[in-house]
């Protein structure tokens, strides 16, 4: 089972993904985290993308496509992936689709965590104190939220039309969201 999880920064994608990972033995593939690791390890790619990420803009589609193919093509992760932060625009939707087809896989569930901007601001400021991420300040957070909303709408529409989309109220308490997602996965696994 491959899952795509959507939600603006601070929507709880990370929290929900790690819950699903543990319960269903899946692997979380967060493009944001992969990119941040490149920066942390000061690789050539990391140096190339750090100013883009720190200003809240998106990295090029080819860069992220190459990163995720490493996982899709790896037998260890075959049909065990949760895509977190990918795809983020329609080009990435098409790229993901062809990469999965090429490796005989598909997306089974698309989850959208829906959260208001006010809640996002609150959560980002809490996370800033804990994680000290360079792109987690209020101004950049609002930019990332707006960027997310702008780019993600056609992506969400695409998955709605493909009948893969489930919208989850991300304002609810974590355990309730956990239960809702588990119920959905169990119903699809049969
Ligand atoms: P995230 O952790 O998903 O909020 O991502 C943090 C940052 O990494 C984003 O603001 C982008 O700069 C970059 N990024 C993550 N995923 C993608 C993607 N699918 N396409 C382009 N840039 C991305």
How would you concisely characterize the structure shown here?
With 190 residues, the chain is of the alpha/beta class.
What is this structure's SSE topology?
Elements: E1 3-6, H1 13-24, E2 27-30, H2 31-40, H3 44-54, H4 61-72, E3 81-84, H5 90-102, E4 109-114, H6 117-131, H7 138-161, E5 165-169, H8 174-189
Parallel strand pairs: 1-3, 1-4, 2-3, 4-5
Helix pairs in contact: 1-8, 2-3, 4-5, 6-7
Bound molecules: adenosine monophosphate.
Features:
single chain, about 190 residues, alpha/beta, Rossmann fold, 5-stranded parallel beta sheet, about 60% helix, globular, binds adenosine monophosphate
Would you identify the CATH architecture?
3-Layer(aba) Sandwich
What does the largest sheet look like?
5 strands, parallel
State the fourth-level CATH superfamily.
P-loop containing nucleotide triphosphate hydrolases
N-to-C SSE string, H for helix and E for strand:
EHEHHHEHEHHEH
Q: Given the structure, what is the number of helices?
A: 8
Question: What oligomeric assembly is this protein in?
Answer: single chain
Bound ions, cofactors and other small molecules, one mention each: adenosine monophosphate
Helix content: 55-70%
Low-confidence stretches: none
Strand order of the largest sheet: 2-3-1-4-5
The CATH class is Alpha Beta
Q: How many distinct beta strands?
A: 5
Distance between the termini: 12 Å
Structural class given helices, strands, pairing? alpha/beta
Q: What is the number of independent domains?
A: 1
- The value of Rg in angstroms is 16 Å
Q: What is the CATH topology assignment?
A: Rossmann fold
